Amino acid sequence: MTMVAPARMLWSRYFTTEMKRYQRTWRASTMSNILYPVLYLASMGLGVGHLVASHHHLVAGTTYLKYIAPGLVAVAATQTAAAECMWPVLGGVMWEKTYYVAITSPLRTSDIVRGRLAYVAARVAIISVINVAVVGAFGALDSLWAILLPLISVLTGLSIAAPVFAYSAQVTSDSKFAIIQRFFIMPMSLFSATFYPLSAYPHWLRPLVEIMPLYHAVVLSRAATTGHGDVMLLIIHAGVLVALASTGLWWAQRNLIRRLDPR
Amino acid sequence: MANGWLVRKFLADSLIGLMDSSLVRADHLVKRYGQFEAVSGISFSIEKGETFGFLGPNGAGKTSTMKMVSSVAAPTSGSLSIFGMDPQRDGAAVRSRLGVVTQEDSLESELTVLDNLYIFGRYHGLPRAVIRERSAELLEFAQLTDKKDEKVDALSGGMKRRLTIARSLINKPELVILDEPTTGLDPQARHLLWERLYRLKSDGVTLVITTHYMDEAEQLCDRLVIMDKGLIVAEGSPRELISSHSSREVLELRFGVNDHATHSDRLRPFADRLEILPDRSLLYVHDGDATLAAIHAAGIMPESALVRRASLEDVFLRLTGRTLVD
């Protein structure tokens, strides 16, 4: 007879199998994970930065490259987290239907959600470490607090991954993901004070930017790369991400339970 | 006083526990999806060591029943006990002793045969060394040893099915639930699979099978139920079901294409039950040869005649009808 592990640890079994799948593709994905920030910083940071420096004084006391570097780290976490919780999740419930098989083992539906999110957190952490190294190599880090960036990225990733998982668990076609990408992830990546400060927006538009999860992630990441920030405000920004991640987790578990065992 | 009652109750419960060899006991089980009722209050019990079948046309509620017995779906109402436990409360403990072969293979197509077994072993919390040892045995059992490092994508349908069965055995389950295990396989692959299932049965594993292949049910099942529209309409061993719901033999007569209806009145007295189909007439009788001789003697001359033993298929069609269910 099989030993039954403590129920709270069951998700870790799903996490280790996700890592097994990752072993198969890590080389290819790591290559593109390194290439992406290099190209990004070269074109946006150096190229656009040159124009910005000669025409505007938007970014006081810093270079444009340094200004957008934390945005790059946060955007990469967001986009990775979102993608990892779209097609793979729909595959689990609709195409390969591997989730239906996983729950015939001692794993519960909630263990799949937690194990998958833990895997996404690990993926985001790896990418973040690569990004921090590349950003550092471009000379865009001014503070030792930058070592917190992978942690901030994990929090950022979970605040996006959990609600996206919840959404993916209840859709019946992957065409819905294009909508999420085009109308949510992409605009958020562009307009969350990633490329220019909030003060560049008219007053009436700022609240719209401030409710985007990525905005909070960018503020936290920027505080880490520059070493400047109001601690109380930063705690609030982190709190928003924690709230999103935990609400998303609850919602994702509920949706997946309903998907795998409709009532 | 109270103690005496408790002792008596304890003894009575223990005695029931000893006498009750049922691995699965279901009582008025209902499964509803919104307004649709897939299972409408069925009761059954599955004994240790037997092979128990669920037969029924599409939409009869077999898969919903299997999901509840696999303890991955919660009954809407009714009670279900597996290994004496409540699957809603002790789901993980129940499932650690179950093997489940789902209707679709749902293998990790990008991973190798061996990795698929490894992953499922991990779900069960088995140590690496144990998984390695059992995988070798299971690959032998499933005749996949020389495919162990191949990606699942490259396997044939029969091989995938055998891998799915091997996967369900990684935790040495006491009860294996197979939902249409041979659907879509060619005859060779089916027979190999039956042979493997026999082996499991002779090792003392209890099997629960759904199928709509009657020969499969007759071959494998000690006992079975026939389901239709969410209800159990008959229960027993294949032999019992045939003897209680059909005659011993069936005489199949063919006339000219449009003649069947015209012969029905003349044929009726010769059979316990007569069924007129567009292409042939079926006479359910005790002795087919004797009946055929009597029909000839009465001057009725069919184009062709076939005498065969009544089968489970006759029972099935009688109980669930000949209307196509999509």
Characterization of this structure:
The complex is a heterodimer of chains A (about 260) and B (about 325). With about 260 residues, chain A is mostly helical. Chain A has one domain (about 25-260). Helices cover about 75% and strands about 0% of the residues of chain A. Chain A is built from ten helices and no strands. With about 325 residues, chain B is α/β, with parallel strands linked by helices. Chain B has two domains: about 1-240, P-loop containing nucleotide triphosphate hydrolases (Rossmann fold, 3-Layer(aba) Sandwich); about 245-310, 2-Layer Sandwich (Alpha-Beta Plaits), CATH 3.30.70. A six-stranded mixed beta sheet of chain B has the order 5-6-7-3-8-9, sandwiched between helices. A four-stranded antiparallel beta sheet of chain B has the order 11-12-10-13, covered by helices on one side. Chain B has a three-stranded antiparallel beta sheet with strand order 2-1-4, covered by helices on one side. The termini of chain B are far apart. Chains A and B meet through helix 1 and helix 4 of A and helix 3 and helix 4 of B.
